[in-house]
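lol ok so funny story. i was supposed to be doing the assay writeup but got distracted and ended up predicting the structure for this chain instead. priorities right. anyway since i did it might as well share w the group, maybe its usefull for someone
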Amino acid sequence: MKRNILIFIIFFVPIIFTSCTKDHPEAITDLIIKNNTGHSIHLKIFLSKNPLEYQINKLDSTEIKNNGGKGGGFLFWPFETSDSVMVTFDNIHSIMHYKNENSGAIRSILNFDNWEKLKKQKYYYKYEYKFNKNDYNEALQTAHNNGS
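and the output, tada:
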């Protein structure tokens, strides 16, 4: 009897567990950065070695698509791996966005709380960050305070 139980455990339990697992689809995250300022925006996202750069034209938006991998969840890349982002308006006025809210822009793009959730499903996430006139005015004031 013990031998039969041992055979059952060795051969059939692994089959039961492997046959019950699902192959999860890739999780997709769309991050939309919208420009409501009336000014062009250049983003320079600082990563470990090479910065990523995005140009957002006046009254336009850009979309960053992320694949989280099989069974993966929400992916906030490239912002989750960055410590800072330089936002430049009209190629003139720049302001730094940091993960630490105590320095740089008041409403940092690196702070996920500043993103609006548009859609959340089991394997699909969509969030939006909107640059507005206040962001532009803050960059303008920062540039003025720094003498540029």
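The beta strands are 26-35, 41-46, 52-56, 61-70, 84-89, 93-98, 116-120, 124-131. Residues 2-20 form the longest helix (19 residues).
back to the writeup now i swear
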